[in-house]
Give the backbone structure.
Amino acid sequence: MRKILRDYGFLLTLAALIVAVDQWTKTLVRTRLALEEYWAPWPWLAHYARIVHWKNTGAAFGMLQGFGDVFTVLAILVAIAIIYYFPQVPPKDWVLRLAMGLQLGGALGNLVDRLTVGSVTDFISIGTFPVFNVADASISTGVAILILGMWFKDRHTEPDSLVEPGNALQPTEPGEAAQPAEPDAHAEPDSLVEPGSPGAHAATGQEEARGE
């Protein structure tokens, strides 16, 4: 039991909270507004934002209408994948854990609608943006957090330092500073005197002096 709480406590708590808020808001809409009826606290606000009772048989934000069965299977597969993979995420990687919790809660929230009502209830309408619900917002927020987290992680990851050839450090005993490798006494010099240079004339003069 402790292992389950340790591995899934955060995930299940966050997902359950999202499902509870999502289902509560949808129930209010279904019981107080007729299908396609809308409500706004002030008449002037209805032009910009409103609550509307909308039936969605497709994906999030009203896309791909009529494919409810397909998205029911996909939601189940996504939920299983998240539950399986979540214990493998280190606790310090809280960005990924948060994103997975939001996505699981959103997927389960809409899955409950598909299994009990036969379609998803959307009700948040802002401007001309497609109507959505709490579960849709949770999924989208989880995806956004995941993308931003990966982007920041890549930006703050410094490349491994490389040791230049010839500057390798010799292994030392614990507590001693690393020492640079000593040059090979039998190695040929890196640079040679080029013909025609002042150094070459000087060397030629020395050889002629020895011959005399």
About this structure: The chain has a mean pLDDT of 80.
